[in-house]
Amino acid sequence: MRLKYRGISYEYNPQIAEVSEEKVGGKYRGINWRLHHCKQTLLLHQPIHVNLTYRGIALS
C-alpha cells in the first residue's frame, strides 16, 4: 500500500496474522466476545539506528 505523509511517499505492507478463536468467551453489555490467539509469531520491524547530531552534539 502506498502512503504519503507530509509530502513524503512510502510503501506500507502490513503483515496479516492468522488467529484462532478460543471457546472461552462471554457476554459484555449484550455483545458476545471470544479470546483470539495468533497461530504464528509475527516478525516485527527492527528499529533503524541513525547517528543524529544537533549543533555538533551526538544524540543517542
Structure overview:
The protein has a domain at 1-41. Helix content is 0%, strand content 53%. It has strands at residues 2-5, 8-11, 19-28, 31-38, 52-54, 57-59. The model has no long low-confidence stretch (mean pLDDT 80).
User: Over all CA atoms, what is the radius of gyration?
Assistant: 21 Å
Residues in β-strands, percent: over 45%
The total count of strands amounts to 6
Q: Helix coverage percent of residues?
A: under 10%
H-E string: EEEEEE
Largest sheet: 2 strands, antiparallel
Q: In DSSP terms, counting alpha (H) and pi (I) runs of 4 or more, how many helices?
A: 0
Low-pLDDT runs: none
So what's the overall shape? Answer: elongated
**Helix-strand makeup class:** mainly beta
Short characterization:
About 0% of the residues lie in helices and about 55% in strands. It has about 60 residues and is mainly β. It has a domain at about 1-40.
What is the topology?
Layout lengths: L1 E4 L2 E4 L7 E10 L2 E8 L13 E3 L2 E3 L1
Antiparallel strand pairs: 1-2, 3-4, 5-6
Descriptors for this entry?
single chain; 60 residues
